[in-house]
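Progress against Task 2.4 (sequence-to-structure conversion) is shown through the following example record, which the project officer requested during the mid-term review.
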Amino acid sequence: MDALIIAAGFGSRLRDISDSKPMTSIAGVPLLELGVRQARAAGAERVVVVTGHEAERLEAALPALAERAGIPVLARRVADWAKPNGWSVLAGAEAIAGDYLLMMSDHIFSAPILAGLAQQGGSDRGVTLAVDQYCDNPLVDPDDATWVERDERQFIRAIGKTIPSYDAVDCGAFLCTPELAEAIREAIAAGQAGSLSEGMQRLADRGRAATWEIGGAWWLDVDDPRAHALAEQQAPYELAEIYAAALS
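Structure tokens generated for the chain above:
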């Protein structure tokens, strides 16, 4: 199994801390390295990183990162990093033949989340999204979160930042089949902007977008200075094995 990490965006809300969000240090380890090491710990055998903003700098850092983490890391550059994140999914998925873990470079997870998600595949779904049912989780920024409404099967009924009704929050980790990239292409062909959520909603409308609830496990979207401060405090403890390997 491969992992796909989206690392193409501008990261405007972290600019006061770092000029490259994926390379932002969290207690001595860059966010992107945490993601690569977490993917490996979950069973990934190769990581594809989609670059865009600061692409040359990020791509130059990948060989050393791959050597430190002990896993092949391949770069794929999105043509226009200012476009919605679904375009980054398409750029990375072109290098992957089968199913894959999809992660955002600014999301970090305690070990049970990615390991558990990797086991959630099935013929009844085109994608499985890790969700947190605790919508009032104090680590979640409600103004930036992507919300999820589930049906009685715990499949996605609706997903987005502004949906009127929801019962879970998107954790930013997915187990994907090739159906997801195809759904994003269909959304673009229909005149939509090409966001990941648009592709997810298309799969949801077909009954093909499952969820997996993380059961209170720790995760964090490191998207602004407040979240960065929380990550500096908590990540070395929540990701103790990752930090032990990274800093040894």
